[in-house]
Fold:
Amino acid sequence: KQATTRPQSSIIYQLGTLDLTTRRQKNMTVTLKLVGFCLWAALATQVAAEYQTGTPHKSVVNLDPSSFKTAIQDPANPIWFLKFYAPWCGHCKNMAPVLDKVAPQLEGKLAIGKIDCTVHKALCSEYKIRGFPTLMYSIDGEIRDYPSGRDADSIIAFANKMSGPSVHTVQSYEDAMTLVKGLPEGVAFLGYDPKASESPESETPLQQIFNQVARLNRASSHFVWLAQDERPYPFIHKIEANLRPRDYQDEDRDIASISTESLGAWVQ
Structure:
């Protein structure tokens, strides 16, 4: 049989049809990508909208660059547990149900926030996040490394400590030493100001500094205020069981010029 030769017009028509199909496929791909982006943007907007100021949180909150600073400075949620994570991280996934479980129990004590570092890379870079999960906590807007365990009991214990009194008052130096012997770390910072007994309804400047430093550092240290003492001058001591107390004024420090910064640096 003789080979049949297709008319040139038929070949041109088929090539045109293939070209049209290819263009339609490309247009479909672009459309799908656009739809996907719109869905992602809608989801991101929804996640960002989860945070609301002025109300204690009872569920884990998704934080992003637009809500992060506002959240940690929210007076209704002054203390935060912060989890910087990646969705593919196995340890991060294991923590998720733990945080979901404890969040309702910690309402009014400790807010829990999570930051997806695969999405909010600049925010995670700002806090030098290198591994996942990285756990931190924030108090009054100041962020520090979280010092405790990842299990529910440890997080609850941390919340109770952070939401409780930051300074314990004792009546004598002997009482302070007894308290120290019962602490797991066996260390505490003890403050005293004879002027405090003159106006018990208001704090002296030294008390204010001591209390502020205690609030910021109570996660890692214990602070005790001495109600009365025979010494006529103010002092701050680092006291440890079976060791001589260390005075803040050692190493040429002057308690008369004490500040939150200088005392904070000394206790750390």
The radius of gyration is 30 Å.
